[in-house]
Write the structure tokens for this entry.
Amino acid sequence: MRTTSFTAAVYLACLSICATSSAQSFAGLGDLAGGSFESFAGNLSSDGSFVTGVSTSTVGGEAFLWTQGTGMVGLGMPSGSASSEGTAVSDDGGTVAGSHMPDVPFANPRAMQWTSNSAADFDPFPVGALGSSANDTSANGAVIVGSYIVELVGTMAYHWKNNVLTTIDGGGSTGLSANGEVVVGVLGDVGSSTEAFRWTAGGGVVGLGELPGGLTNSSALGVSADGQVVVGDSDSTLGLQAFRWTEATNMVGLGFLTGGSFSSATDTTADGSIVVGIASMGADSDPFIWDDSNGIRNLVDVLTNDFGLGIALTGWDLIEATAISDDGRVIIGNGINPDGNFEGWIARIPEPGTALLGVLASLGLQFARRRCS
């Protein structure tokens, strides 16, 4: 029988749908038992297998580690703490960095490190440090970055490796390359002028500047695996705007969603080609995804139109994307679930940045689906 090019195209499209229908998914991460229903996803391992964050449990806000197989597992907190939060996880899930709040009046958060099923205070800081945080860790969990507070001085960014604490400058470290050698963060204190920075042991601190028209405020929030691409946000002539920085291009604004007035990039893939974050849509906030071919797009639209996840998203109000896996196929974030509760979520997509279903529509999508059934 003669097969027309159209029929062949539809047949190939059908095979594509059948082969990838199980590859994409969207789901809430759930919450820890006890307390009100609430969870927030903060970060993930490079392959997306492990997620950490905070959820309400019987003891209050508690750091968690989530996997597909175990679901959400509470990590506890150091003795004498009122709450804890996970902010970064190593590739093998064996180390979680974060912070905990001592259960004493007027306390500041303190850095926490979880290993081997035990949460412990992480304290390599100078005597008298008033508070601290651990914001990111290297792929193997051996290097940690964050900030600590010095009385009458302010907040200091740090890099910790091989039991050696290196104070970088005033501000805070927010992101770390996979090998632990490149640190990004913010110079200055909140409420004053700030500037995104990139640091290496050999090159020291390099300020990344601001977008055109911006005042003196920018923040680096994420970095590629090799440390060559930095993402974050900066003041600009149009408002607070997500940026992507490389040494060759310097800081480039990623734009806004339609009708929006701010955007902020939170993470990027291993090669820096895909960026995720949060952006305004009128009075609301939505997660965004950016790549060079498509520009900035509403992640909800991408999940719905490109990957057919509209049914899974029914009733959800997604607010932000907080992290993306190295290959761009796992994205986590936070939103309001169909029951009206804050809940972390995870999305798995087969080929980020494509418009598979849009192409199939032009080839006869409904026919293709009938052939697959």
Notes: The first helix runs from residue 5 to 20. Residues 276 and 289 are 4 Å apart (CA to CA). The longest strand covers residues 164-176. The mean pLDDT is 90.
